[in-house]
Design goal:
The structure holds 2 protein chains of 2 kinds.
Chain A (H helix, E strand, L loop, with lengths): L3 E4 L2 E4 L5 E7 L6 E6 L5 E9 L2 E4 L6 E3 L9 E3 L8 E7 L5 E2 L3 E5 L1
Chain B lengths: L3 E3 L2 E5 L4 E7 L4 E9 L5 E8 L4 E4 L2 E6 L4 E6 L8 E9 L6 E2 L3 E6 L1
Parallel strand pairs in B: 2-11
Antiparallel strand pairs in B: 1-3, 3-8, 4-5, 4-9, 6-7, 7-8, 9-10, 9-11
Classes of the chains: A mainly beta, B mainly beta.
Chain lengths: ~110, ~110
């Protein structure tokens, strides 16, 4: 899907567990971002990065960490999973327009 | 903050035209997008328009922008069952790639 790869595609966690959602792109894009998609709410921006070493918060950053050590990778970390973080997570990269990965479907029990 | 609104549902018959509407509040929006999401899949960029344009046509897709009313529409001509999906409107400002999405319009095309 336009060179943006997300892993895993599905994941089930228990409350309190931590995990990392991976995102990689091979288009040499500076800009990358993470969104979550919830029913009836569209997509909301969690964190974004304008280049290696630079990250910033989006609309709903609480409970998530990001880092950008390389241009290609932009992992999203859940520090202590909560049921409210059950969602579909999308990574995107690129300038106008952005290209999206296929998503990670995450369930927190 | 910025807000983007869409109707939740649209049902059409195969062969008819579909018109999906979107309104936004940010007057500094520079780029406006239409994405398509099929069940269980990611978002596919359909088309986008710059705010200094009124219309953009791409095969069966026509985008109309009324900047004064902050209204964007997507017309799909000769709608097919394969067009059944959720369609998201999104906007962003110059220099910022952050997208603000609408809630999505579910298009159902019946034979």
């Amino acid at each position: 899907n336009a060179g943006v790869t997300q892993t895993p595609k599905f994941q089930v966690l228990k409350t309190g567990q931590s995990m990392t959602l991976q995102c990689a792109q091979d288009m040499n894009h500076e800009y990358m971002s993470w969104y979550r998609q919830d029913p009836g709410m569209g997509l909301r921006l969690i964190h974004y990065s304008v280049g290696a070493g630079i990250t910033d918060q989006g609309e709903v950053p609480n409970g998530y960490n990001v880092s950008r050590s390389t241009t290609e990778d932009f992992p999203l970390r859940l520090l202590s999973a909560a049921p409210s973080q059950t969602s579909v997570y999308f990574c995107a990269s690129g300038d106008q327009p952005q290209h999206f990965g296929d998503g990670t479907r995450l369930s927190i029990l | 903050g910025e807000d983007v609104e869409q109707s939740l549902f649209l049902s059409v018959r195969e062969g008819d035209s579909s018109v999906i509407n979107c309104t936004y509040t940010d007057s500094s929006s520079t780029y406006l997008y239409w994405y398509k999401q099929e069940p269980g899949a990611g978002l596919q960029l359909l088309t986008y328009i710059f705010s200094n344009m009124d219309m953009k046509q791409d095969q069966r897709l026509t985008v109309l922008l009324n900047k004064k009313d902050k209204h964007l529409s997507l017309r799909i001509a000769d709608t097919q069952t394969g067009d059944s999906a959720i369609y998201f409107c999104a906007e962003s400002n110059t220099g910022f790639q952050k997208l603000v999405f609408g809630t999505g319009t579910r298009l159902l095309v019946s034979p």
